[in-house]
Write a structure and sequence with these properties.
Length: about 500
């Protein structure tokens, strides 16, 4: 006893507490059990006759059965719920695809949703959408899950691969184990570090029936791809094919419109050899400024088309005025000014899409001035579209740096003086400042784009120089280390082909 008491006392308080907690847990476990309940009841009451025990056992058995039945029912319910979830998974995936199609227009984002949902619906590891480049006779990955960064896989249509075979035959291919199939090229795995097992490829068909790509899914998590997987992938592939075909058709239309507008602009520029390339250069300067000022993508397109077409109204100005040597009379100048309103009238007849609907107005405002003294509407400040204010800077810069019938190319210092003095009266100062902050190499590339010597100019030399700094150097600014001789090189480029003794008429 004493020993026991001693040993109990010797046990640390923490250990005693642990013992106590073990005991109470044990006791709780005993009480939790229905059989224990019965035994205790009989023990406490002191009845040990067989009948009473048998009654208790029956009760216990009934209780046990009830609990077992409950448990089994719960299991069945959970299995049914799982089955229901599995059955609904493809449908909910399809719902998300349809919802994305209703709200998203960008092909890349849509294909991203489709491949992600396909991965979940088919319980597989990776999905890739290959698009056929018929000219190059290659299939390239428009979407490829698992490829890091902007890596792209290109597969020759004539080569030995499952995707190429699918594109060539226009038939679905379902392979349970790629390494057992002679069409599988293990080099693909070696290049990507991936381990392919099961493969399912479905050809993407255009409305005319021709193959435009392949939808490939890899490595189903539980066994090979099933017939049901094939059906789902066929459906999703049809959706992806429709979207790609639509995007390709849209791209073709955009390229057609782009080229048509460029050609129309050139027909105006080329009426006079001295203005050849003016519209393209104004477009390129405008885009440089627009990008530097973070103009959104959709507005960049409006800027491009507006800049390209800004002088289209010159088609309505007689050549004898456009080509006149020397200064224009006030009447002739008034006739030239009409080109802005003619630009608006002509462009308004073109069925621009909603995204480009501002082009006629933006293009026709390129001679407006922020102080309201411009033409042809006499708009002021922010009433002039921001994109037109960019075009105004680009247009004047190009006009001053180009040879005209009535003057030679203006010295660059003077051009800068005119541009700076136009801040906040003619021009929006933020646009002028953005222009002067452009990298000089980019400005020179546009400036000299129509001249043969442009190809020889050493862009590397001007790489770290803003246009503003270049003008400072050309105007006699002291060159810092690494800037020596740059002003002379620029002079050589800018004045090449001009008479050394030319006099500016401005
Ligand atoms: Fe103009």
């Amino acid at each position: 006893m004493a020993k026991d008491a001693k040993s109990k006392a010797a046990k640390p308080a923490k250990a005693q507490a642990a013992d106590k907690s073990k005991k109470s847990a044990k006791s709780a476990a005993v009480h939790d059990h229905p059989a224990a309940d019965c035994a205790l009841t009989t023990g406490v009451a002191g009845h040990d006759d067989v009948e009473s025990r048998s009654e208790s056992l029956s009760k216990f058995e009934a209780e046990l059965n009830k609990r077992e039945v409950d448990l089994i029912e719960r299991e069945i319910k959970s299995l049914r719920q799982q089955e229901e979830l599995d059955r609904l998974r493809p449908l909910s995936g399809l719902y998300r695809v349809v919802r994305a199609m209703a709200s998203e227009r960008r092909l890349d984002s849509l294909l991203d949703v489709i491949t992600r949902e396909t991965q979940v619906m088919l319980k597989c590891d990776r999905c890739s959408v290959f698009v056929l480049d018929a000219q190059a006779s290659e299939l390239w990955t428009q979407v490829a899950q698992g490829l890091v960064g902007h890596r792209m896989i290109r597969i020759p249509v004539g080569g030995n691969s499952i995707v190429a075979e699918c594109a060539r035959t226009g038939r679905m291919i379902n392979i349970p184990d790629a390494y057992q199939d002679p069409r599988f090229d293990p080099a693909v795995d070696r290049n990507t570090g991936y381990q392919t097992s099961s493969v399912l490829c479905v050809p993407m068909l255009a409305r005319g029936g021709e193959v435009i790509g392949v939808f490939q899914v890899l490595n189903k998590f539980d066994g090979p791809f099933t017939n049901e997987d094939e059906d789902w992938l066929e459906g999703l592939t049809a959706v992806a094919a429709g979207l790609i075909e639509q995007a390709q058709a849209y791209g073709e239309i955009e390229r057609f419109v782009d080229k048509t507008l460029e050609t129309l602009a050139q027909t105006i520029d080329q009426r006079d050899p001295l203005t050849a390339g003016h519209s393209i250069r104004v477009t390129n300067y405008s885009l440089l400024v627009g990008q530097a000022m973070n103009v959104p993508d959709d507005d960049i397109d409006v800027l491009r088309y507006s800049a390209m077409m800004h002088d289209y109204g010159k088609i309505g100005v007689p050549e004898k005025i456009l080509w006149k040597d020397g200064r224009l009379t006030p009447e002739e100048y008034a006739t030239v000014q009409k080109h802005a309103s003619i630009t608006y009238d002509l462009l308004s007849n073109l069925p621009f899409t909603r995204r480009l609907q501002d082009v006629p107005f933006v293009a026709s405002c390129h001679h407006e001035k922020v102080d309201g003294s411009g033409y042809y509407r006499g708009l002021k400040g922010e009433d002039i579209p921001f994109l037109s204010r960019i075009i105004a800077v680009a247009d004047v810069f190009d006009a001053l740096t180009s040879k005209r019938h009535y003057r030679n190319r203006m010295p660059i210092e003077k051009v800068s003086e005119i541009m700076y003095s136009g801040r906040d009266n003619h021009f929006d100062s933020t646009c002028v400042d953005a222009f002067f902050q452009l990298p000089s190499a980019r400005v020179i590339a546009v400036l000299e784009s129509e001249r043969e010597r442009a190809a020889n100019f050493d862009a590397e030399l001007f790489k770290n120089l803003s246009w503003q700094r270049l003008v400072e150097l050309v105007s006699g600014g002291h060159p810092k280390r690494g800037e020596e001789g740059i002003a002379e090189v620029f002079d050589g480029i800018y004045n090449a082909g001009l008479p050394a003794d030319y006099q500016s008429l401005d």
